[in-house]
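Quick illustration, no need to memorize.
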Amino acid sequence: MASTVYNGTNLILKVIADGGTLAAIGHTTSCTISLTNDMADATTKDSSGFSESIAGLISGEISFDGLVDYTDSNGATELAGFLLGRTKVDFSYGTETTGDTVYTGEGFLTGLEVSGEMESAVSYSGTIQVTGTITATVNS
């Protein structure tokens, strides 16, 4: 059964490179997907002085935050390797609940930051720029 309003803890970002198995990014504390439709101007003299647009390029970006744990199999170290290697990653963004929508596609890490403050857990944040088609499917 599809979720209604649900706890953000259930939202999972998974990535993998080189045809392996998708796995959740370790110890994430938040993740966000942003989809954008770049509108192209279609205004003409027949527009009666009003702006008109048509749908143009669609793009997407995923951002995430987490806590560093070097024992994670898909954590900050692996993500840094993807970025440094200019490696395209497959991603999955959604819940694991039957009936819920999951977004999938490919992208490149465009940023990764690891930081630590005195007497606090070391954290990381990053961004994936989507390249190509984003597919929305329903968990079954």
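The domain at 9-39+54-138 is CATH 4.10.410.40 (Factor Xa Inhibitor).
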